[in-house]
Specification:
By secondary structure, the protein is of the alpha+beta class. It is about 35% helix and about 15% strand. The strands form 5 sheets. A 7-stranded antiparallel beta sheet has the order 1-20-19-15-14-9-8. A 7-stranded antiparallel beta sheet has the order 7-4-3-11-10-2-21. A 3-stranded mixed beta sheet has the order 16-17-18. The longest helix is centred in the middle third of the chain and has 21 residues. The protein is globular. The structure holds glycine (GLY). Glycine binds next to loops.
């Protein structure tokens, strides 16, 4: 009922073309006094929250939630993938950890091309050749070792119990599993647990994953990278035609990074730095938008959509050209987000008509990525906050499932540009900066973000959604800051997306009034409401004026906020 009311409120809000905050009837998400976890599955949020209740901090809860998602949300939660976490401690210290996958040592620039130099369809997306060296277990242990307070046993035990007990299938999960049956058969030599018509309400148990986690509990991080698990994993990938070796696993290390920070009005925004494009792209868009009075234009009005679209167009043009793994390429971070540069970028914008993407440099590169990632936000009772986005790239990653170890392997290699100028399966046309090299990390759009106001924590937010991640995080922040929405409404509000190329404004279907679409079309915007069933699936936590927390768990998924 709450969901129905929320959607009703949002649609009402849109159809009224809300100009004044007073027209708006807010719907709040879960409110708690002290602490909260918001993630894609209730089971994972609960396990993370239980860790907080036991006296653990946000970093302990990060480890628990990440691993619980690997059990309860195999669609994107993972041991076989990677991610990024941005944090803000209660003393104001900030930082980020990069546990992104890496290209194996045997990777080559042309590994996905045939003899004629053409991209081989499916090679970077389906099966063992698509797999990058996973970083998740290293990420979890690095975070726990640096900032955790509870013994790892207390964190892993409930996750192992969940894997043994099993997880019930939701309506959405039933559909996701059914949709991928053909790919599961193509990617796997033998039958896997997901090759079955699982129905809503069924329980899937994961005994092999429980055993893998038990070994990790006993032997620590190195079990995954140097132990029996590493040996089994490398052999499994190679037996299936892949190139990840034991040496690749043994060499894997996380990177602690300085996040991207910038101001927008009276907010300070802290987001992920390269090899994610998220923070820089978000900074570029917000800085280009800042001079415009969006709150006066109103939420999702023609003018607001124009300003945001034009800023997105310009930022995404830069994104493809300049960004890649900072350990391999020089990125002009400061220049890309400098006021002068961004003012100049927007100088060609007018409200009269759309700018053409073909008139915006850098041309000839395009960004679209897989949508199947997952995000969680945590604020603890001590005031620490984390924002983490984790992925195996595609839905169920490469679809290659190691039954002996109990998890899917990523297809993150597809986030590289297989051939500069040629689109990957998701339409990505990358540049040289993101070409394949041994041990390089592939460019990401993941945008785990923390927002401060007046030097205090205001929000932790993020989302899956490939290239739409950045614009979904952007609109959620604007919905709260410019349009006075609650966290829940900000997350639920209809979203749109432009990424330079293709020169199209993607809009969530049945969410925007016809009159608005007509106005935008008249001004020269091409609107696509068909190919964008979901733009992001945002989870966030907002600190309210009285210090309480409000969770925003996206109506588009099974996402749930749990707290106390
Ligand atoms: N694989 C999605 C991303 O990293 O952005």
């Amino acid at each position: 009922m709450k969901k129905i009311l929320t959607i009703f409120t949002i649609l009402l809000l849109v159809s009224c073309k809300q100009e004044k905050k007073s027209d708006y009837t807010p719907v709040r998400g879960l409110i708690t006094d002290k602490a909260m976890v918001v993630s894609a599955r209730q089971e994972a949020s609960k396990i993370g929250n239980d860790i907080l209740k036991k006296g653990g901090n946000a970093f302990d809860a990060m480890a628990a939630t990440e691993l619980a998602l690997a059990v309860s949300y195999p669609y994107a939660g993972n041991l076989g993938g990677g991610g990024f976490m941005v944090y803000r401690k209660n003393n104001g210290d900030i930082g980020a950890v990069d546990y992104r996958e890496k290209a194996p040592l045997a990777a080559t620039k042309d590994m996905y091309l045939d003899e004629e130099g053409n991209v081989i369809p499916g090679k970077s997306t389906l099966g063992a050749m698509a797999v990058g060296v996973p970083g998740t277990v290293a990420g979890v242990f690095a975070v726990h070792e640096k900032f955790g307070t509870l013994p790892i046993q207390e964190i892993l035990t409930p996750v192992i119990e969940l894997a043994k007990k099993g997880v019930f299938v939701t309506e959405k999960q039933e559909k996701r599993i059914a949709a991928k049956q053909e790919d599961f058969s193509k990617a796997n030599k033998d039958s896997i647990i997901f090759m079955k018509a699982w129905k809503q309400g069924d329980t899937i148990r994961y005994p092999a994953l429980a055993k893998t986690l038990e070994r990790i509990l006993e032997n620590g991080r190195d079990e995954f990278y140097k132990g029996e698990t590493a040996k089994t994993l490398a052999k499994f990938i190679q037996d299936n035609g892949g190139i990840v070796t034991e040496e690749d696993l043994a060499k894997y290390q996380v990177r602690w990074r300085d996040p991207v920070t910038f101001t927008y009005d009276d907010l300070r925004i802290i987001s992920m730095s390269p090899p994610s494009s998220g923070g820089i792209c978000l900074a570029q868009i917000l800085k280009m938008i800042e001079p415009y009075d969006l709150d006066k234009f109103g939420h999702n009005t023609t003018k607001t959509i124009q300003v945001i679209t034009e800023a997105e167009r310009r930022a995404y043009a830069d994104r493809s050209f300049y960004l890649g793994d900072p350990d391999f390429v020089d990125i002009p971070n400061k220049e890309l987000i400098s006021d002068d540069y961004l003012k100049n970028r927007m100088s060609s914008f007018t409200f009269d008509k759309a700018t053409l993407s073909s008139d915006v440099s850098y041309g000839n590169v395009q960004v679209v990525e897989s949508n199947e990632t997952t995000h969680y936000s945590i604020v603890d009772q001590f005031g620490n906050a984390i924002s983490t986005t984790t992925t195996i790239n595609g839905a169920f990653g490469s679809k290659l499932y190691c039954s002996e170890l109990g998890f899917f392997l990523n297809n993150e290699m597809d986030d590289f540009s297989s051939k500069p100028g040629v689109p990957n399966m998701f339409g990505l046309i990358g540049a040289e900066a993101n070409s394949i090299a041994p041990e390089k990390r592939m460019l990401s759009s993941m945008t785990p973000t923390i927002v401060e106001k007046d030097g205090k924590l205001l929000m932790s937010v993020g989302t899956p959604g490939g290239s739409t991640i950045i614009t979904s995080v952007l609109q959620t922040i604007l919905n709260v800051h410019e349009f006075g929405m609650t966290m829940q409404d900000a997350v639920n509000a209809p979203r749109f997306h432009h990424q330079w190329l293709p020169d199209v404004v993607m809009m969530e279907p049945n969410s925007f009034p016809e009159e608005l679409i007509k106005e935008l079309t008249t001004k020269g915007y091409t609107i696509n409401q068909e190919n964008s069933p979901v733009i992001g699936k945002v989870d966030g936590i907002l600190v309210l004026d009285d210090g309480k927390l409000e969770g925003g768990a996206d109506r588009r998924g099974d996402d749930t906020a749990v707290g106390f």
